[in-house]
Backbone:
């Protein structure tokens, strides 16, 4: 594969020895773990660069994309779910939930191409593709991120909105909500202070779980919008069978995912003081 | 009593109310095919779309298609017309035929993954929920697998093997099994606390019999609902894998592959991307609607909250 079509058996043997593929699996696995613990993810087979350097170059676009997406998704989905629960079984609720089903069913790249076609090609409001680093100014940076983030946010919005609605419906049926209404607390205060605060645990949980969707979606979104991030890195690495890079990125993503969910567990204590560890 | 009372002559001027009919006619339950359609229009719509897609996939050669791999460089990138309903791609292949044949790949992947992941997940979940010492081992393994986002796990697995339909199914199945196993284990653990299980144990039922006769049937309803969602997600993952070049071989017309090929040209020829995209979204939507309907029917408690 690496040596090309006309490699002689000796060449193949030489490359195998160079990559250490002639030694037992178990030894290689422990060596690999040891390397990782000392902060070394190995060297790319294809570019011969350290994997850590390659990842470091690509972190900024992916991180920006995810953070902007997270802000958009939570900012849209939570109010949407709250309003849907407040207006349960009316047309507002129905259309919000219909939107959620559609959002859940439409693959990320379909949404990506659709909104890129409408807002970038036809209306020309945003750049079609590409990414501007934040060092080039916040304006161009955010402009290059709006379409990819909205694309990526859609699935996430659908997920969070559904759970928010369910959790809110549960809370709004409680006695203390009736008490609050009876003593004349305003509607908005009931929804957001009395309601949302007590419905927060499942919502925070699903935001954490949804980061998996975000990671998977980032791989695709970066391809659609030609953003040079980690997702593109892993896709290119797969096409070239560049295993150290694939391993490194998958490991990093899993690490982030575990870390986010740990953070979620810690946030529980803050939203619901009854929870103790 | 009422009958006796009426035999007495009513005082003059007093009107006796008309007797109520003996039996109040029951509201006719909505039964049969049209009943289902009326009670759950969304699920029925989903079922209809899904059936149509299955028909399209099954009868692909009869639907006015030509060979989806036939190259004709002289008629590249034609817009949709009477001859080429969806136009042609950059190699002059008929896009309509390719999209119709692409339905086969998506549906095969969706259904096989749903069935395989359910069977294996069910087995693992049942064993792990019943046998204490296996539970610890298996659940730590599953925790590890669940720490990798499913799409990424499938991508990593595909990087290890050659791209083929079979490998795609295996990769997505492996990525989905942990979720099913978790669900089944949870159901088993809560079922074990039920009095009828204690009664069965007291009556001397052996453990394998207990699992098969008393626990398994109760896990099937949540399983079936989960299976439809897995089917939908498998179709999306398959398309994503093909789209990034880690799925079925490029020569196979799958929706993901067609979109991957159209990617380079989508700014000038958006039709190549949009036709498979519409089919994919419709199919996934159909399966999701069906899943929601099933959930409402099989698990009314969940239905109320979601």
Residues:
């Amino acid at each position: 594969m690496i040596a090309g079509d006309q490699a002689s058996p000796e060449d193949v043997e030489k490359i195998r020895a160079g990559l250490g593929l002639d030694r037992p699996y178990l030894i290689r696995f422990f060596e690999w773990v040891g390397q990782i613990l000392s902060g070394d993810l190995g060297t790319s087979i294809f570019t011969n660069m350290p994997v850590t350097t390659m990842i470091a170059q690509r972190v900024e676009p992916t991180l920006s994309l995810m953070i902007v997406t997270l802000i958009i998704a939570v900012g849209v989905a939570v109010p949407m779910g709250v309003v849907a629960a407040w207006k349960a079984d009316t047309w507002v609720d129905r259309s919000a939930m219909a939107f959620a089903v559609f959002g859940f069913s439409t693959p990320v790249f379909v949404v990506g191409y659709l909104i890129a076609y409408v807002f970038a090609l036809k209306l020309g409001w945003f750049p079609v593709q590409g990414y501007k680093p934040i060092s080039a100014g916040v304006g161009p940076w955010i402009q290059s991120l709006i379409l990819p983030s909205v694309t990526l946010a859609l699935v996430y919005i659908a997920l969070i909105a559904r759970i928010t609605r369910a959790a809110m419906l549960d809370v709004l049926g409680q006695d203390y909500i009736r008490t609050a209404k009876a003593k004349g607390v305003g509607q908005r205060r009931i929804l957001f202070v009395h309601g949302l605060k007590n419905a927060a645990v499942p919502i925070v949980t699903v935001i954490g779980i949804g980061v998996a969707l975000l990671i998977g979606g980032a791989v695709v979104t970066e391809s659609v919008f030609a953003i040079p991030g980690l997702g593109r890195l892993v896709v290119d690495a797969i096409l070239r069978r560049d295993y150290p890079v694939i391993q490194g990125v998958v490991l990093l993503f899993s690490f982030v995912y575990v870390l986010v969910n740990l953070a979620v567990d810690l946030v529980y204590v803050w939203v619901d003081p009854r929870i103790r560890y | 009593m009422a009958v006796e009372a009426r035999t007495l002559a009513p005082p003059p001027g007093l009107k006796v109310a008309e007797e109520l009919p003996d039996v109040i006619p029951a509201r006719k339950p909505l039964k049969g095919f049209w009943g289902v359609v009326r009670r759950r229009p969304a699920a029925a719509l989903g079922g209809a779309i899904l059936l149509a897609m299955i028909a399209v996939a099954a009868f692909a050669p009869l639907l006015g298609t030509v060979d989806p791999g036939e190259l004709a460089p002289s008629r590249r990138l034609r817009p949709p017309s009477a001859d080429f309903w969806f136009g042609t791609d950059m190699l002059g292949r008929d896009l309509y035929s390719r999209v119709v044949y692409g339905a086969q790949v998506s549906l095969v992947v969706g259904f096989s993954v749903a069935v395989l992941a359910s069977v294996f997940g069910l087995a693992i979940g049942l064993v792990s929920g019943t046998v204490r010492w296996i539970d610890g081992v298996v659940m730590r393994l599953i925790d590890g697998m669940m720490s990798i986002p499913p799409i990424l796990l499938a991508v990593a697995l595909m990087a290890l093997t050659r791209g083929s339909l079979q490998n795609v199914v295996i990769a997505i199945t492996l990525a989905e099994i942990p979720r099913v196993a978790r669900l089944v284990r949870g159901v088993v653990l809560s079922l074990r606390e039920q009095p009828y299980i204690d009664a069965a144990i007291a009556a001397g039922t052996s453990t394998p019999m207990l699992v098969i006769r008393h626990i398994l049937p109760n896990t099937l309803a949540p399983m079936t609902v989960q299976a439809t969602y897995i089917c939908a997600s498998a179709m999306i993952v398959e398309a994503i894998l093909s789209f990034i070049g880690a799925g079925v071989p490029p020569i196979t017309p799958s929706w993901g592959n067609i979109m991957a090929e159209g990617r380079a040209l989508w700014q000038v020829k958006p039709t190549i991307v949009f036709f498979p995209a519409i089919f994919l979204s419709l199919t996934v939507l159909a399966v999701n609607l069906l899943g929601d309907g099933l959930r409402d029917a099989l698990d009314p408690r969940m239905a109320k909250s979601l």
Notes: Chain A has a mean pLDDT of 78. The first helix of chain A runs from residue 9 to 18. Chain A touches chain B through 40 residues (CB under 8 Å).
